[in-house]
Amino acid sequence: MKKINTDVVVIGAGTAGLSAYRNAKKYTSEVLMIESGVYGTTCARVGCMPSKLLIAAAEAAHQIEVAPKFGINVKPAEIDGKAVMARVKHERDRFVGFVVEAVDELPEQDKLRGSAKFINSHTVQLDDHTQITAKRFVIATGSRPSYPGAFNNFGDRLVINDNVFDWDDLPDSVAVFGPGVIGLELGQALHRLGVKVKVFGVGGGLGPLTDPIVKDYATTVFSDEFYLDTDAKVSDMKQVGDKAELTYIDKQGKPQTEQFDYVLAATGRVPNVDNLRLENTTLELDERGVPLADPHTMQCLDGSGNAPIFIAGDASNQIPLLHEAADQGTIAGENAGRFPDVRVGLRRAKLAAVFSDPQIAMVGASYKELEKQYGNCGCFAIGEVSFENQGRSRVMLKNKGHMRVYAEQGTGLFLGAEFVGPAAEHIAHLLAWALQNKMTVPQMLDMPFYHPVIEEGLRTALRNLNANLKFGPDIIKHCLECGPGA
């Protein structure tokens, strides 16, 4: 058994792990990084990048479909599934290659392969060949898809989003379980690429939305395009030959039995911490076995209040987004490197986007969080706008959307937003910058808005919010400058 002593060990070489490694290196040269799987981040291999490649192909097909509405008549699109998937995989591999190249550039002596398990808070064992004692650790082991055990009844007809990007061709039909971010993006993309898709959910949720007005609007819009039941009743799940068969109650209340080429389980992800033997450490764990951690320092909690273990990225079960993983990795790595000098790191304004069409975005505090924080005291106000009559949106035939923005009564401080609509990914950035700079709604309205742009819809929502805060007048319905979204 080989034995190693070092200052810092980073477990995991994904986005968070690489960031933690580089930042720990600022304070000590003795940093090791352990990886048990293939190099290349979740985002590059099976997440944000390949999914956007599939979505881009779907958008190209959709533009041909809607062209006649502009008076442009074209032949129906002929979708070459093999060509679509070939481009997805080729570009995916290119993105992964950049990550692998970055890992290859790291010193060989700093990279170890194998599965790490804690013996105690200062020691891990790497498979059956190496024991490493370190002064500090960073857990950056990522996450993996999770689904109910009953889905195993579908046999090899069951896939997760990781599998989709290895297809050589598009299937004829797919049942998607889980209308969250992954299920909604992939389900709509496959539908627009000619695949028969039905999306099933439980409990009425859609994407990350918590505002009931926005959620109901979005559910209606997506249901108009493809079969979507956010609170489905499904039974008799099984594999029949080379098909997946299931029985469900349709939206008219009638039982239907249908077969699909595949069932895509997009029902969530779980942190990869269950095989680390964290019970051998002094860390405090939640009900799922995930270490509790300070979100500002990424230091794990234990009885001493000064644990030598930090956590970052999807493993932390906090905000599973690439930019958050990188930020958490930076904080965890710096604090592990300079321990015991643990400092608060920069946590940016909350920002999330779903690349559906129309897009969904969340900024800052959600409606659900504000309801919990403020209750029914009327301490926060809401402004809103529909994009159905917004000028630039109608010009582009992208006029589906509804936005709700929130601010604190009295101060006018902007708190957050939930919305579905065109260019949501871009508008969300403007709002996140305003939130991080602690701007009030009147200050936001002092910013420039060009004409005609989709962002004028945001201005209308802010003006409505300003009026509800009693800082400004009500919107005049037919005034070009005031509403509805110019």
What's the quick description here?
Its EC number is 1.8.1.4. Disulfide bonds join 43-48. By secondary structure, this protein is of the alpha/beta class.
Write the layout of secondary structure elements.
Layout: E1 2-11, H1 15-24, E2 31-35, H2 42-46, H3 48-66, H4 81-104, E3 111-113, E4 116-120, E5 123-126, E6 130-139, E7 143-145, E8 158-160, H5 161-164, E9 173-177, H6 181-192, E10 196-200, H7 212-225, E11 227-229, E12 234-240, E13 243-249, E14 255-260, E15 262-265, E16 269-271, E17 309-311, H8 322-338, E18 351-354, E19 359-364, H9 367-374, E20 380-386, H10 391-395, E21 402-408, E22 414-421, H11 424-436, H12 441-445, H13 455-468
Parallel strand pairs: 1-2, 1-6, 2-3, 6-17, 8-15, 9-10, 9-15, 10-11
Antiparallel strand pairs: 4-5, 5-6, 7-16, 12-13, 13-14, 18-19, 19-22, 20-21, 21-22
Protein architecture, described:
The chain has 486 residues and is an alpha/beta fold. It has 3 domains: 137 residues, FAD/NAD(P)-binding domain, CATH 3.50.50; 119 residues, FAD/NAD(P)-binding domain, CATH 3.50.50.60; 118 residues, Enolase-like, domain 1, CATH 3.30.390. 31% of the residues lie in helices and 24% in strands. It contains 13 helices and 22 strands. Strands 1, 2, 3, 4, 5, 6 and 17 form a 7-stranded mixed β-sheet that branches. α1 runs parallel beside α8, α3 packs antiparallel against α4 and α3 crosses α6. The model has no long low-confidence stretch (mean pLDDT 93).
